[in-house]
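Bench notes, afternoon.
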Amino acid sequence: MVKKRKPQPIAPPPQSSALRSRKRARQVTTLFHKYTQELDLAIDRARDGGCSEEQLSSIDSAGNESKRINGSISSEHKVLLDDVKKWKDKISEIGGREEYQRASQLNTSLFSTSKWVLGVLGRWGWLDGLSTDDPSDNEQHQQQQQKSAQKKKSRRDVRLLEIGAINTQLLDAAARKRVERAQLVEDEKDNATNQVERVHRLQVKAIDLRSTNPRIEQKDFFELTLSEQPYDVLVNSMVINCVTTPEQRGRMLTLCYNQLRPGGVCFLTLPKLCLIQSKYMTRSYFEQILTKGVGFELDSTKDSPKLAFFVLKRPESKPVQVWNEKFARTTTINKGKKFRNTFAVTLDQTEVTRDR
């Protein structure tokens, strides 16, 4: 009889200046998500227990508290602050957010979200820009195959926002140029000059909480104001699973909807484990949240062995939404040892039902 091996806990991987192992990259991302979630819970407990923001901010990345604060706190507060310190130390042990970003870059190099996004936009004809007459008419874009200069004059750039950007692939695609030889009559060929034009009509803005590249703006998506010119495309790849609370995940989905123009699309990816091993989530319920809750139309979906992909469209006209109270609370759906994941999403009725 073969004995079953007991599952071993994930140990923090050794730090190194170069991150090349895919297995180690998965360990780093798994631990980072776990530790940041525990850290947020510890901070919430400390606040509920009466710890001040000054006391919380006095714990640096190494978990050290200033002597002045440490000497003036009660024993109850010290226990709560020590818990915060423990999770900050664990995040530091695996290399912090910087190591997590390197791990994410390695993971995305094995499957390029950018290629998927550009492939879909290319099939729609959006890489050639959007018509200034009717920017949301997909059928018109699919039918227009010719790329004459006259047609390009009546088109505008696609406004794209990438949330949580860890590389510059979409920025590079927007900046890519090619040389197009001028089409002249026979008598003018001696004076012909080549014209440099962009390959794709994209206007990309990439943001991240901790930018790793000067071309990526260091901004918090939750603090972005609604633009007077809403975006045509949002890319939210492997970000929502990093948001630590169900309430904030729901708010992120709502803000994605609000940042898009009617007819705009959101490319959303997240780990499949969030949908198949969570005690609070199933794929069908997640799709209900996206459509009946937030208001998106589900354009298409696909899966890889590890990831789930969604193309979500903001409807041209305001959808008829019937609010369901289940979207506002976390409820256990799946029971059993298999369902160890705690991914959940809750929505705020005020935010999703207001005039948008």
